[in-house]
Amino acid sequence: MISRRRILARMILLIGLAQKPWSCLADVSQLLKLGDTAFANSEFNAAVRHYSSAIDLQSTVPLMYTKRAAAYINLRSLSQALRDLNKAVELDSKFIQGYLNRGKLQRQMCNFAAAERDFTSVLELKPGQKVADQELQRTRAAKAKLEAVQQAADRAAAAKAQQEAQGGSEEHGEAAAARNLELIRPTLESLYEDAADCVKAQVLEAEMLFSAAEYEQVVAVTGRILKTDDRQLDALVLRGRAYFYLADHDMAKRHFGEALKFDPDHPSARKEFNKVKDYDRKRARAQRALEAQDWLEAEKNFIDALHVDPNHRRGNEGLWLGLCKSRAALQRFDDAVSDCGNVLVLEPGNREVKLLLVRLLMDAERFEEAQVKAREFLGQHQQDGEFHELAREAERRLKMSKRKDYYKILGVEKSAGDREIKKAYRDLAKRYHPDKVSAEERTAAEAQFREVAEAYEVLSDEQKRTAYDNGQDLEEHARAEQQWGGFHHPGMHFTFRFG
């Protein structure tokens, strides 16, 4: 049995068609049938073509516009669908189905005020109309959900601003943003059930994902927005920023460029576009200086590049490493240690930097730290022979650091020759000889004299000096020499007589 609504729709269609010649009526009727068949077979592009041809022949029938609007909606051409529904209610201000369809589409797109007006119009035309009443309530509920999502996004933005102002850790801010997003997620999903094409909600979701550093998901969400509307500027800029933090600078510039094409004065797009270019320019300049071994210039340019965006983790990892290498070459080992430490904060698994960090700690004569780090990294790379070798080296250097520094005692460089060592010994022996000091200073002078003699005993002997420089235990070395008929290490057992 045909419903009264369908009968009324057919009557409206026939009244409109009655104004055309019979040959035209036949053409329009045939085109509508073709359109309906195509629509039923999900061939929506074909349906649009047939409905459009019918409209060209008869443009005053509201129902034909609603048919084409339905096809456009299935093609995700929502703006074109909305234009058709506007035309339908313009042709017939009492067209209830036109108002209902347009109200649903407006709600689907988060145009809640417009949707409420359409459903209210239906209720004014037909008080108590059940569908209109249900859709009006659903629209108001969806509006409340969007307001809740907006409040969550505002809280996330405020928390991030406060964290940046107070100098808190970026990771802490991202974790808070992630928790905030999880709390609002059920409301967001419920909103999408009522308003699947709510661009505002999608942009808010992308902003919260961005605050949580979920950049891949930002790209996915904004991609869905741009598939529906490739001129959505907020989505273009947000997607470009996400690509920047994913270290895909070409894609970032492409999206900022698209936004500027549609709006050359868009402030955020212009700012972000210039930032990417500035970052790339300074990074390239720093890399060229590093390759040319112009260490001071490299250091300056790496610092300049890091200041462009301190939060660019994937990009700044390479900048910190370049700065580390530059400062290591300048023998500013403590600074280099700090720089390499920053690399490991950004990429904890970087093998090259782990090895470099331990070596830099030894160069900085921070031997206990070097040993701790070497053992830590060895535990992470048990099958890597280079980490085993480095751990042994760190142990050896730590042991060396705890013994007496004979070069320092004699006041000579490690590269000093035999004559320089002998001269230093004679000068110090005269200075600290107990016969040359007062009775009050005699005990201290004897101790100092013994150390000078001990240092000279080792450094003046080629074999002992080589063993010492190689970090070998001199007593063990002496016992080994004795076992094979070699020397005894008298340096450890001095006996002096002072007249």
From TrEMBL:
One Pfam family name is DnaJ
Which InterPro entries does the UniProt record give?
A: DnaJ_domain, DnaJ_domain_CS, J_dom_sf, TPR-like_helical_dom_sf, TPR_rpt
Q: Where is the signal peptide?
A: 1-26
Q: Which PROSITE patterns match?
A: DNAJ_1 (PS00636), DNAJ_2 (PS50076), TPR (PS50005)
Instruction: Give all residue intervals belonging to the J domain.
Output: 405-472
CDD domains in UniProt: DnaJ
The stretches annotated as TPR repeats are 62-95, 96-129, 233-266
SMART domains named among the record's database cross-references: DnaJ (SM00271), TPR (SM00028)
Alphabetically sorted, this entry's keywords are: Repeat, Signal, TPR repeat
Q: What is this protein called?
A: J domain-containing protein
